[in-house]
Amino acid sequence: MRVSIKLAGICGSDSHIYRGHNPFAKYPRVIGHEFFGVIDATGEGVDPGRLGQRVSVDPVISCGHCYPCSVGKPNVCTSLVVLGVHRDGGFAEYAVVPAKNAWPIPDAIPDKHAVMVEPFTIAANVTGQAKPDGTGYRPGVWRGPMGLVTVQALKGVYNVRQVIVVDRIDERLAMAQRSGADWVLNNGNLDLHKALEEKGIKPTLIIDAACHPSILQEAITLASPAARIVLMGFSSDPSQIVQQGITGKELSIFSSRLNANKFPVVIDWLEKGLIDPEKLITHTFDYHHVTDAIELFEKDQRQCCKVLLTFDQ
User: Fold this and answer.
1) DSSP three-state, residue 279
2) Would residue 64 be called left, alpha or beta, if left means φ above 0 and alpha means ψ between -120 and 50 degrees?
3) DSSP type of residue 277
């Protein structure tokens, strides 16, 4: 089916593709994997009754029969195709997508929230791996842009008692507080280990959304025995770790990539008011100025969070 694009969101991976740093994307390519619009044409075998339907598009296209697909992980399909990476995506007036990837958006969800479904599926995938409960967990989140959606999920969906966010930029920490973080720490000007030790805190769930090679060993050192660590990043740089620290505490280490059928989960969160995408949207550009939007996203890490592109059609 064809989707007439109304809004699209800029992600860090879009910046990497734009700069030629993503090994999976080859030009010519229409980038953009966070997008929302209206179905304006249907192909063979697609219900024409879907014409005019508001949809948010899941960029993950999988084969459905390989081992990962058979165990519910289409996000790591052996033949994985991601819209905006391996195949043309949503930074254009129109996008052609598989019908099953276009998720209907209820009327109660505004357009600006609908375009944010995909970023929140990243949080849904992370929390699906870690399975936090609302009582015993003290998560520490090493923030990146995806850290904020995860904070909202931990607080709004899972009612986690105390969420701690770590970053080196105060403005980012303020954003984290607006998204529900209980305690924020700038590890650029304090000893993180000492700060946690003084309060008697051993994090029981640590989520690395910043993707720096040094963070994994730091997380292993800081974690409570029996804690869980989730890695969200895609760094190609090696991480040096002490294996004894993992086994000695019997830590569980997970990774999370894209999303595994999480669009209906996030749409349900939005309908119930458990998350608030509005807190993350800081800038809006007409799509003709996409290069300006990407450059702002890259340069203004203090004030810029989620940048949207508008398509007035």
Assistant:
1) helix
2) left
3) G
In the chain, which ranges are E strands?
2-10, 34-41, 54-57, 60-61, 81-82, 94-96, 102-104, 139-142, 164-167, 183-186, 205-208, 228-231, 252-255, 281-286, 306-310
**Cβ pair 263, 239 in contact under 8 A:** no
227-264 per-position pLDDT tens digit: 999 999 888 899 999 999 999 999 999 999 999 999 99
Residues of the chain with pLDDT under 50: none
Q: DSSP for 166-231, please give it.
A: EES-HHHHHHHHHTT-SEEEETTSS-HHHHHHHTT---SEEEE-S--TTHHHHHHHHSPTT-EEEE
Torsion of CA 264, 276, 7, 207, to 10 degrees: -70
What one-letter code names the amino acid at 174?
A: A
| 224 CB-near residues (< 8 Å, 6+ apart) | 138, 202, 203, 204, 249
Omega before 238 within 30 of 0, i.e. cis: no
Please check whether residue 233 is in contact with residue 208, taking contact to mean a CB–CB distance below 8 angstroms: yes
What is the Cα–Cα distance from 156 to 276, expressed in whole angstroms? 9
The first and second tokens of residue 240, run together, are: 């040096």
Give the residue from 18, 166, 29, 169 showing the smallest Cα distance to 85: 29
Report the C-alpha gap between 269 and 272 in whole angstroms.
Answer: 5
Paired with 140 in beta bridges are: 164, 206
CA gap 8, 162 in Å, rounded:
32
Contacts of 209 (CB under 8 A, 6+ apart): 141, 142, 143, 144, 145, 146, 147, 150, 232, 233
Closest CA to 269 of 144, 155, 131, 166: 155
Distance between CA atoms of 152 and 207, rounded to whole angstroms?
13
Q: 100-125: per-residue pLDDT in tens?
A: 999 999 999 999 999 999 999 999 99
Q: Which domains does the chain have, with CATH numbers?
A: 2-116+280-310 (3.90.180.10), 121-255 (3.40.50.720)
Model pTM above 0.85? yes
